[in-house]
Amino acid sequence: MPENEYFMKGILDSNERVVAEIYSSFFPKVLGFVLNNKGQIADAEDIFQKVLMQISIRIRCRELQTINSTFEAYLFTACKNLWRRELNLRKRVTNRNIKEQVSEETDMAYALLEQERWELFKEKLEQLSDNCRQVLALFLSKVSYGEIVEKLSYASETVARQRVFKCKAKLIKIIKSDERFKNLIP
């Protein structure tokens, strides 16, 4: 049985041995990420557990059948996204000095929705040309237009801006044309 199916079936069946294997194999990487990004061990444990619950829910309710990467990459990306979301929430609470009471179920639903949006974005990004993916990767990494001109040998910053605009428009169009898009709007 392929590794992805093995782990997904183990989660679906609540197989303690498989879940323990998931923890021992993949938790250290998540722990390192959380500790390196303003977190504690307890935060990493919470994030990891929430993501396993998300995956379980998706397997049962949303019929998550396939993962387009390795299980480890999928799990780690979901943990990274959830931890970044948590940091942003903490930042907002700190900045406003207001504590929001969000139920665990609501928080889980939002996290699941964000993960599904991320997956749709990544899937549609892969449908773009190599050049568009490069341009958008640089743009999303906040690389200046001047650097984009240098790296991709464009004639000017105006050309780079136009290319970014066209690639973003194309990505938005193919995302919005996917029938899953309507279900991912809050």
From TrEMBL:
InterPro entries linked: RNA_pol_sigma-70-like, RNA_pol_sigma-70_dom, RNA_pol_sigma_r2, RNA_pol_sigma_r3/r4-like, WH-like_DNA-bd_sf
Keyword Transcription regulation: yes
Keyword annotations from UniProtKB, A to Z: DNA-binding, Sigma factor, Transcription, Transcription regulation
Family designation: Belongs to the sigma-70 factor family. ECF subfamily.
Official protein name in the record: RNA polymerase sigma factor, sigma-70 family
